[in-house]
Fold Formate/nitrite transporter family protein.
Amino acid sequence: MTDDDEEDVREAVERSRSGAPAAGRVIRDRFSSDEVFQRIIAAADEEITSGSRELFFSGLAAGFAITITFLLYVSLTASTGGDPILSALLYPLGFIYIIIGGYQLYTENTLPPVALTLERLASVPALLRNWIVVLTGNFTGGALGAAALAYGGVLSDAEATVAYDIAHKGIEAAPAVLFTKAAFAGLIVAGVVWVEYASRDTISRLAVVYLAFLSIPLGGLFHVVVSFTEMLYLVFVGDLAVVVGMTDFVIPVLLGNTIGGVVLVTAVNYFQTTEHRLESARFEGANRRLSLKEWAFGGLVGRSYVPVIDTAAKHARKDEGTYRILVPITNPRTEQPLVEFASAIASAHEQAVVHAVYVVQTPTRSRYDDTARRQLVEESDQLLSEVCSVADAYDVDVETSTVVSHRSFEELFTIADRDDADLVVMGWGEDRLWDAARAERPIGELTNRLPCDFLIVDDQGIDTSKLLLPTIGGPNSELSAEVASALQSVGDTEVTLLYVADGPEDVEDGEQFLENWAIDHGLEDADIVVDDSGDIEATIEREAEDHTMLFLGASERGVLARLVRNTLHLDILDEVDASVVIAERSNGRSLWRRLFGRR
């Protein structure tokens, strides 16, 4: 018997009487409820962490795409004599563009964050912010589309009459009827979201989206963005007031879509998944949820979002007497000097902790199963333990943690705020958090109100033996002085204070200023240099040649805001060989930003 014959016999023996394989695995052709939930969570991560600019313009594109739906519905109704089925055949096209293209539409792509909010992984304010920005973009796009239809000559006279009649049907309906029909539309849309993420291929998704949205005109239902576009069309042709259209038509539809969609997500899709859904969707499961206060008030009382992986939460400040330094790391193999620098500063305090956080920005829509998460954390812990070994020489407690999130720079502010950190020490250069920050929400919302003091280090080989500190006073220079004094108290560090006067007649005043300033800031032993050239940059460059580290205070505009906007250009960094440290003092948070969770 040949080998092939033996294989055939073995296969025959291993088959059950029903013909199914007796060995091996069966490959399922559909996702389980838990797996669908995980896919929705991955999409919700992307949406809830998107910047306002990205959400708005994606919403604007979606709103304008709805114009296609209205246009085709009007055109087919006119050309088919009002046949209820034929006129609706192309109605779903705008929605297909939106869903397959990944645009943000209020009733579709913004429903997944509801799952995050139900799981207390995102706060209610974060959800509302997402909804408001997307809805604003949708309405803006719908308004542009309605204006194009009304004034652009796109519709023939017959089609314009049909558009007028279609729009008037909604205006003439009672608000209670609008609400009920919109609620059914919301149920359909929420079902589309769930089934779309349960689909394994684009063809299936197309079929689901087409049939679901075809049911809206066939059932006489209402979708809020379509209704808004119809309402504005009547406004533009001079037949309706905006206020009346909003109160009598759009708002009832908006409420119906929202309640219908959320009820289905809550009552049907969410609770049909198992009680282990969170453990499979988030590292460390329910232990990672927002507190009830955070869930209700977001950034006002703590966090507004829980990232994919966050082992930093367990290190939140417990002892008010401990000075905490946070060191965000983007490359553990190259940023050991930052931890050593932070440890040197920390060692000047009686009780101090250095918290090194490996911040990993994960691509959008990425997924980590439980094994992958734990492996990532274990590898990160190993890398960080090697990085933080330099702290042993300073007798300072070191904590390490890993944060994996679709955000990066913004996540740093969340950690610093939650840790109640006193100081953040972070590197400046290529492959830092700056580039990622530019893709996040407007960074001015963060950098205008720093949660703690910041030191931005341009590392040219950190050596604290000879420090140069130019100053004309101010809070940022005071922070530089505090750090210089701390380094001086724990090591063989020489400090030079530099003042650049406008001319020889100001030298005496400059010397008196530096003497007093040195005494006030614990730097009585510092050398004092007063230059009368009036050329600040050239003087600093010349004096820095004999020093190993240069401290600069941030300008009034702030170094962080200018770094992430790529508007900070200091020629001095290219001209000096010493490491440069830019200090920026914490400026607190306004009541307005606290109320709305913006730091």
